[in-house]
Write a structure and sequence with these properties.
single chain, alpha/beta, 6-stranded mixed beta sheet, 7 helices, 10 strands, globular
Length: about 250
């Protein structure tokens, strides 16, 4: 129970802060376009006045680049992703998209498809979990079929006569860990965002499927791909690789 409280405490504090904020300055409605780069400038970050996770962290992610992040367990890989997405604010420093600050801008997340290691699935069909809508009339059938084929989820489609209406069960109890991650990636591709962030989101796949999945994602056109991984073999075709070390980022060569 203590671990559960500890895990949830940061989220509770964030919600509390949002409640206290006045309505007029809660979020910006400014449209953000991503044409050039995401830039992290002199970022410092710590949780609840604890020791800093990052100090003086600088990073530029060019548009349409393929970007890898590695680091030891607990080094702050997922925290860095949260900062890039805008879910977490830096203690100091700025996060800019084409020179525009993303702090409190709710429109930035529209440009991102994020796939975490642990995929959330609700108790509904494969179809609705991928498309994330309950109204079938709003589903793009061609796009749905494309992502199912891309992620090799036909095995679930043809598992029963229910096909794409196969029920994955509460929190995905009727699918394997690898299938759950494939559904998460299919969901991200269906959203068709400019930025795809994969946070250890292929580690439940076997070696061949993981390799093929990442290779296929890298072939996607007009996409910025950020991959957080511990497996260096996954990063062979990436444009840049950085390692989180000594509370900052250092360029890493394979």
């Amino acid at each position: 129970n203590f671990n559960q409280f500890k895990y949830c405490s940061e989220s509770i504090l964030k919600v509390h802060d949002l409640i206290l904020m006045t309505e007029e300055n809660k979020f910006s409605n400014k449209e953000l376009t991503f044409k050039k780069s995401i830039e992290l400038q002199n970022i410092e970050f710590s949780y609840s006045n604890k020791d800093s996770i990052f100090k003086g962290l600088n990073l530029i992610i060019p548009n349409n680049s393929k970007f890898g992040i590695i680091g030891e367990t607990g080094s702050g890989k997922s925290t860095l992703v949260d900062l890039i997405i805008g879910l977490t604010k830096p203690t100091n420093g700025s996060i800019l998209v084409d020179k525009n600050d993303i702090t409190n801008n709710k429109n930035w997340t529209k440009n991102i498809s994020y796939v975490p290691q642990r995929i959330f699935l609700f108790n509904s069909s494969l179809r609705h979990n991928v498309c994330f809508v309950e109204d079938d009339k709003k589903i793009d059938e061609n796009k749905f079929n494309e992502v199912i084929k891309f992620c090799k989820l036909e095995e679930l489609i043809y598992k029963t006569d229910k096909r794409e209406f196969y029920q994955v069960g509460e929190n995905g109890k009727n699918v394997s860990g690898g299938q759950r991650q494939k559904i998460g990636i299919a969901r991200a591709l269906y959203k068709n965002s400019e930025v795809i962030i994969l946070d250890e989101s292929t580690n439940a796949l076997d070696e061949i499927n993981e390799k093929n999945m990442i290779e296929n994602i890298l072939k996607l056109k007009n996409k910025t791909v950020i991959l957080v991984t511990h497996n260096l073999n996954n990063l062979k075709s990436f444009d840049q690789i950085f390692k989180i070390q000594d509370k900052t980022l250092k360029k890493f060569d394979l």
